[in-house]
Amino acid sequence: MDLSEVQAVLSRIDQQLAGVGTLDTVVAQAVEELLNLIERLVSGQQALAEEVERLKAQLQQKKKSKTTDQGDGPQPNSDHSSEKHRRQRQKSKRQSACDRRTFKDLTIDQTIECPVDPKDLPPDAVRVEDEEVIVQDIEIKPRNLRFQRHVYYSAAEKAFFRGPLPGGFDQGDFSANLRALILSLKYCGNMSEPKIGEFLENFDVQVSSGSISNILTRSAKDFEQDYHDVLVSGLSSTTYQQTDDTSARVDGSFWHTHILCNPYYTLYSTRPRKDRLAVLEVLQNTDDLRFFLGQPTLDLLESQFSLPRKWQRKLADLGEVELTAGQLKTLLEEWFGDRNGQLRTAVEQAAAIVYYHHQRAVPVIETIVCDDAGQFKLLTEKLALCWIHEGRHYEKLSPVVGRHVKQLDSFLNRYWDYYTSLQDYRASPAREQAAMLRLEFDELFSTRTGYDALDARIAKTAAKKDQLLTVLSVPSVPLHNNASELGARVSARRRDVSLHSRSVRGARAMDVFTTLVQTSKKLGVSAYAYLQDRLIGAYRMPSLAQIIRQASQSPAASD
Known about the structure:
Blueprint: H1 3-20, H2 25-63, H3 83-87, E1 151-154, E2 159-162, H4 176-187, H5 193-201, H6 209-218, H7 224-237, E3 240-250, E4 253-262, E5 265-271, H8 276-284, E6 290-293, H9 295-305, H10 309-318, E7 321-324, H11 325-336, H12 341-358, E8 367-370, E9 382-385, H13 387-395, H14 402-427, H15 431-444, H16 452-462, H17 465-468, H18 482-497, H19 504-523, H20 527-536, H21 544-553
Parallel strand pairs: 3-8, 8-9
Antiparallel strand pairs: 1-2, 3-4, 4-5, 6-7
Helix pairs in contact: 4-20, 7-19, 7-21, 8-12, 9-12, 14-15, 19-21
């Protein structure tokens, strides 16, 4: 029986019930239970159908020999975006029909007179105010330089002395200008390495595919400090940070690209895992986590991980000690061996969290905005969940019973009306309004409709009250996590062009340069000019970290 037949039967039942009037309480309850049973059966049938389609697509993908890993093939339609409902409540913005380009910031390199041929003028023509037309042009051509280096030889010192090459021309066969262009084509233009080579070949630039690859990967080491400084300044620039992750492939293996951002920067870090320890590595920009054992660790383990008293005593006997990853591994192997994997993980995570809060190498995040994934919990004092992520759970409901469809639509309207109220509060916070919004939350998410799937979803949202209402105590915190999702989309589009990084070094280079380019974009800085300035060694431009600090401290800055 397909879905349309089920809906037709349910429609007839609705019509029959409408003519009956008020039902007996017992009968009404029985009807409600039967309708919910139908919803569960149809939902299960749809899930099985989607799984069959997924497996078919995966099998087809394997036949094409593109990949044998699960999850890479085409997926069934799973668009459960909540943007439609949210955007209906946003004020419409009038779009100008005129050309919105502006030339006020353009540098004029040359002014060319455009006279009128006197033969075309009538006898009484008089020259009046000239008309200016600004046209943007660009010139791309090779510029090959031959440097005549003076060479001297000292017989006494048995050494040669050579005239130094100018800055930007002393790093091999390619100038800083050309290397900056190659990096920009890759990380600003999202071009693949073969296409970069093809582009340069059209302008008679002779560069091999190996040279392009080396420029794209080996140049990253010169920008590691910039990358770290962006992280430190970015963490200091707002009271909250936003985070997300997306899949990545490194040398054929599945890794994860972590995104950390706020309005002033976007940082990327690709790692083999996406657990809590991996997130802590990202927050500290390290591959060598350190751990702290002491009373704060014991308190965390007791409150969040239910550590047995036996192991609490063992930890207490150690006192306060800071350990490297290797030292902690040795200690835990001595205690647990190959057993008690959950306890071992709990000790590792608690010790890493406590160390993170005690260290001073990078600023500690006060509030993190994220989805409801477990790896983000316990890391910060406050956690703010994304209302749009939460709304997607409701969009995934696909009731077939007419009354359930109406109940879901009605609740979603109330959900997004409440979201709009939170937006208004964030724009102009007031203590009395915060108290009212807390009461409205309780009222909204105590709703019971009789549609079991919707009621279960409402109860789950109600359990997240503190995380969803973080904005009431920290009004600067966004209500959604779109910023980090947009950052993840950059990685996804790059993955479409270049399926994977062929080495860990390549993945790191991609993280470094994507961070600098996307941060430059947010700050209104030319990424090409910045890369060129650093590769030449001129350092005429302020660092991105300096610009972040200036932008976040300016009177116009707002979270």
